[in-house]
Amino acid sequence: MIDEQITLLGHRKIVHVDMDAFYASVEQRDDPNLRGRPVVVAWKGKRSVVCAASYEARKFGVRSAMPAVSAERLCPHAIFIPPDFTRYKAASQGVREIFTRHTDHIEPLSLDEAYLDVTQNKQGLPTATLVAKKIRQEIWDELHLTASAGIAPNKFLAKIASDWRKPNGQFVIQPHEAQSFLLTLPVGRIPGVGKVTEARMAEVGIKLVGDIHAMDIATLEQAFGSYAQRLYELARGIDHNPVVSNRVRKQISAEDTFPDDIPLEACNVHIQRLAEKIWKASNANARGAKTIVLKLKTKEFQSLTRSLTSRERIESCEVLTDTALALCAKVGLPQEQLYRLVGVGLSNFERENAEDESTEDSFSLLAEQIL
């Protein structure tokens, strides 16, 4: 049984590379006055959220996605810097170019992290550990940024490992070590297990991955339904998902969260600007979208989505803008309703050129998330 499990785990060499405090690190790299100081990448404002925090700011409890006002309260002397996604994307592309020297099997997850399958690597290095070490060194030498890496026989374990020695470190999980490594981990370390799922697990006595491992599949199914099989396998370190290169874009979108709630007609100017932004981004690839999506969030946090799918690909920014505005006009809520967020998206992409793929396939446009 153990030999069979090692065989299942050991047929790939996967590296998960995760840039360290990426946006904040780019800011510190480009402005020497920021180095060693608590940097928070966020717009200041009561509805802004933190995009990234330097490790100096994290010491005070500042974390990504927390409200900017909370970050300011935790670290009053933090330096707040509005995000500059043009520079972050340029740095991300530099990292991607380094990846391609070692493998063509790259699956970007965002601007700052990616999976690499280095079972066979271009440099002929004997181990995945050496590949990861060389990639991290090249990122530092050429881009003056640090990255952490996890090396493991599958994506699930590699992602956990990359967080083990942050920042600027790497960690290896060998196939024969996977089970003992997992048993003592809190279930919250499993990617995809959020606070809600973690609370549900606690209700049935699950706190550690080892608790899942001790349960049979029938018991897990009673508590977690279709998710049970995935949990059963992950608790045993089994993940058959391959690194998927050239992933087809599912959606590209941009959002505005307003400093103050506004009526529906006031959303139009934001819709026009967001439509122009995502049209410019989507046009960078030789593909078209057939579905236009409008997203609204009311003052009361109710999310509304409206969409229209065409038989033909969307051919112009004007069509995108006019359609998004028409969808907005048909929301159907009372005129006095106020809104806190609007978003515009394109989806249902068709791929014209299989070779024309880029790291943007995994990205949503976030630069306009907060005003």
From TrEMBL:
Pfam families membership: IMS, IMS_C, IMS_HHH_1
Active site per the UniProt annotation: 113
GO cellular component, one term: cytosol
Cofactor(s) demanded: Mg(2+)
Sequence ranges assigned to domain UmuC in this UniProt record: 14-194
Residues annotated as site: Substrate discrimination: 23
Chief location category: cytoplasm
Subcellular location: Cytoplasm
EC number: 2.7.7.7
GO biological process terms, semicolon-separated: DNA repair; DNA-templated DNA replication; error-prone translesion synthesis; SOS response
Database matches in HAMAP family: DNApol_IV
Entry similarity comment: Belongs to the DNA polymerase type-Y family.
Record function comment: Poorly processive, error-prone DNA polymerase involved in untargeted mutagenesis. Copies undamaged DNA at stalled replication forks, which arise in vivo from mismatched or misaligned primer ends. These misaligned primers can be extended by PolIV. Exhibits no 3'-5' exonuclease (proofreading) activity. May be involved in translesional synthesis, in conjunction with the beta clamp from PolIII.
Protein name: DNA polymerase IV
Gene responsible for this protein: dinB
